Amino acid sequence: MEKYIIKSIYVSLLLIFSISACAQPLHQKGKFTKQDTLRGSITPERAWWNVLYYDINVTPDYKTKTIKGQVKITYKITKKPNGKPKMQIDLQEPMQIERVFSNDGQTVSVMKTPTGGGSNLHQLARQLKFTRQGNVYYIEDAPAKNNIDSITIEFSGTPRAAVNPPWDGGWIWGKDAKGRPWMTVACQGLGASVWYPCKDHQSDEPDLGASLSITVPDTLVAVANGRLAFQKDNRDGTTTWKWEVKSPINNYNIIPYIGKYVHWSDNYIGETEKNLSLDYWVLDYNLEKSKKQFGQDVKPMLKAFEYWFGPYPFYEDGYKLVESSHLGMEHQSAVAYGNHYQNGYLGMDLSGSGWGLKWDYIIVHESGHEWFANNITTNDIADMWIHEGFTMYSEVLFTEYHYGKKAGDEYLQGIRKKISNDKPLIGPYGVNQEGSSDMYNKGASLLHTIRQIINDDSVFRKILRGLNSEFYHKTVDSKDVEAYFSKIAGIDLSKVFDQYLRTIKIPQLEYKIVGDNLSYRWANCVNGFAMPVKLEGVDVWLKPTTEWKSITMTAELMSKTISTSKNFYVTTRKVE
């Protein structure tokens, strides 16, 4: 998701703009609590089971700002639990779990629901006891006899309301321009457990997908991820919309959108010659605007990203943009769009290069997450640079694909100016904590620097496509991605990754000139740093280490001011 606030807005107002200003509260933590560990780690109560499927039913009440529902969690037992099986389920206060039932191998709908599948015959299922510890519930004696089991959870309450979505997450009880109800959720980082019970850890996606049934007044439309399974008139003034996702999906990506939506569709024939359905759900009064704006950028985006990253990862679930009251989020197969049908980021160019005004930032950036965040997902949000760094770099690759390499370089050099180097890109593990907000532009700058080191775009493209194939629909650690880069590039990039991911130091090329002799070395770097670097304006590569090395300068080089290529994220200093 783009948590990035544009410098150019506050340049004109306050002469200050920082990416961290709009990050979710996760960035504010200095000390960690037991709740952080329970949320961010694989506890014993999480370790013995793996989620296969979420079947969620929810009914929001716009007037009271409450929701109620049930979720059936189907899971696989991965190892025998010690003693009586205890299961950790996450649901954030003030939401609460009402009852939990074991289905004991049966398909049982516990709560009466408008879909017609409900029942009040609780004797068909075994009611389970549970205890609560803050945002964590412990389900006692959870079913663990079969290879695959399930539980059904009834829940209700007043979910946390988002104050400044999507950066400050929660349920969004909004109104459209005509004063009509407009609801959705934004919960990346904060967690899906802000509104429904789940195993709220990024490493465990439901392997077989999920379904979301939303019951709303029959004057409204409910949209969610994947494809519409059915729309049912409940004959009581409400309608239930059931949406299904066939692919694994992040918990925070399972999202309802509720409003006065209308629908139009298109299709795209991708590089595999498969037909990809393109579906657009927008507010009724924005239909014509959406046809112009989405028609402008969606297919060019898909063409560029399929070239660089490989086939769109969710052909089975389709591609969808859904208008939202907030700026945007990468909700899988239902991308939230709130850029007001204009180019740039709310009409501005984040890079200051001019290239960012030629395309719709939210369409390009949030769709880029379908490859990096949704297809490839990090196990721990400490490694979120993989989501945001690669996706911000997708903006560079999109620009380059359609406007040329020089344009892409200029865009990258523009976004690099906003790096703050306040703390490392990788955060602390096991406590649900991200690293620096620099994960966006510094992450992109790292990738661009590595691209220069490889110095072969066919190999660089092979790596990007290979990542999306090797880790297709999988969760990863940063070390997995780092190792893959080194393996395919045939270059040990470990020190480069350590430098840019785990420190806040910018490598500095120190040099001195005596006659026609140029001496140089790396400073401000990790031990063993030996990154090759190209000089600006000449076809000369240096291979510095942390020790002084020398070359004899050519006449051409002597006529130039010594500086490194602008495509490397480094600094240069002359030593007298």
Topology:
Elements lengths: L6 H7 L20 H7 L3 H4 L1 E13 L4 E12 L9 E4 L5 E7 L23 E3 L1 E4 L2 E4 L8 E10 L12 E6 L5 E6 L23 E8 L3 E3 L3 E7 L4 E8 L11 E3 L1 E9 L5 E9 L3 H23 L9 E5 L4 E2 L5 E3 L23 H8 L7 E3 L6 H19 L1 H12 L24 H14 L2 H14 L3 E3 L1 H12 L4 H9 L5 E7 L2 E7 L9 E2 L6 E2 L6 E4 L2 H4 L12 E4 L2
Parallel strand pairs: 1-11, 17-18, 18-20, 21-22, 23-28
Antiparallel strand pairs: 1-2, 2-8, 3-7, 4-5, 4-8, 6-7, 9-10, 10-15, 11-14, 12-15, 13-14, 16-17, 19-20, 23-24, 24-27, 25-26
Helix pairs in contact: 4-5, 4-6, 5-6, 6-7, 6-8, 7-8, 8-11, 9-10
Which keywords apply here?
single chain, 576 residues, alpha+beta, Immunoglobulin-like, 8-stranded mixed beta sheet, 23% helix
Question: What report would you give on this structure?
Answer:
By secondary structure, the protein is α+β, with helices and mostly antiparallel strands. Among the domains are: 42-259, Immunoglobulin-like (Sandwich), CATH 2.60.40; 508-574, no CATH class. It has helices spanning 7-13, 34-40, 44-47, 287-309, 361-368, 385-403, 405-416, 441-454, 457-470, 478-489, 494-502, 555-558, and strands at residues 49-61, 66-77, 87-90, 96-102, 126-128, 130-133, 136-139, 148-157, 170-175, 181-186, 210-217, 221-223, 227-233, 238-245, 257-259, 261-269, 275-283, 319-323, 328-329, 335-337, 376-378, 474-476, 508-514, 517-523, 533-534, 541-542, 549-552, 571-574. The strands form 7 sheets. It has an 8-stranded mixed beta sheet. A 5-stranded mixed beta sheet has the order 16-17-18-20-19, covered by helices on one side. It has a 4-stranded antiparallel beta sheet with strand order 9-10-15-12, with no helix packed on it. Strand 9 and strand 10 (181-186) form a beta hairpin. It starts with 6 loop residues before the first helix and ends with a strand. Residues 3-28 and 114-123 have low confidence and may be disordered.
